[in-house]
Structure formats: C-alpha cells, structure tokens
Amino acid sequence: MTREAALAELETRVRTVLGTRVGPELARSLPADARFEELGIDSLDIVLVLAELEQRDASNTLTGKDLWEAADCIDSLVRHLAERHD
C-alpha cells in the first residue's frame, strides 16, 4: 500500500470514529485542516477519539495537552498517527 493510500485509509478511520462524537455527517464534511477548537470539538472529544483508535489499533500515542497541541485538526491527527505507526 502506498503512503498516500495508507494516509487516506487512516483519515477515513479517524473520521468514522470522530463521527461517534460529533455525528457522522459533520465528521465526513469537515475540511481536513479545520481546527477542532474552531468547530466546537473539544479536547475531551479528541482524547476519546484517540482512545478508540488506540484500542482498535493497539497503539500508544499522546494524551492530554500534548495531544491537543500535536493534533488540532483531522490532518494533523492523521499525520501524528501515521508517524507513530512508521
């Protein structure tokens, strides 16, 4: 699988899990570079999304403030998760 395909697949998973917190329609329609904070998606939402992704992938990533700073939009969250899996 190419890196681009892997990132696209990861973004789909992130949007699917994010949809459980904010609704699937909103999660699918969000621009990848829209800041979570500006969209009303708070750090608790992102921590819960990350926890579910970690559980599905059995991975260990950032938590709390570090996560919020490293992953402030879908694009940065996808990049962060991809780097942790490389």
Highlighted features:
70% helix, globular, 86 residues
* Helix-strand pattern: HHHHH
**CATH architecture name:** Orthogonal Bundle
How many beta-strand runs?
0
Q: Pairing-aware structural class of the strands and helices?
A: mainly alpha
The CATH class designation is: Mainly Alpha
Annotated CATH topology:
Non-ribosomal Peptide Synthetase Peptidyl Carrier Protein, Chain A
**Helical content class:** 55-70%
Distance between the termini: 13 Å
- Principal-axes shape call: globular
Q: If helices are DSSP runs of H or I spanning 4 or more residues, what is the number of helices?
A: 5
Mean pLDDT: 82
What's the alpha carbon Rg, rounded to whole Å? 12 Å
- Biggest β-sheet strands, sense, barrel: none
Q: What low-confidence regions span 5 or more consecutive residues with pLDDT below 50? A: none
Number of domains: 1
User: Into which percentage range does the β-strand content fall?
Assistant: under 5%
Please characterize this protein's 3D structure:
The chain is mainly alpha-helical. The chain has a single domain (3-85), classed as Orthogonal Bundle (Non-ribosomal Peptide Synthetase Peptidyl Carrier Protein, Chain A), CATH 1.10.1200. Helix content is 70%, strand content 0%. The protein has helices at residues 3-22, 24-29, 43-57, 64-70, 74-85. Helix 1 (3-22) crosses helix 3 (43-57). It starts with a helix and ends with a helix. The model has no long low-confidence stretch (mean pLDDT 82).
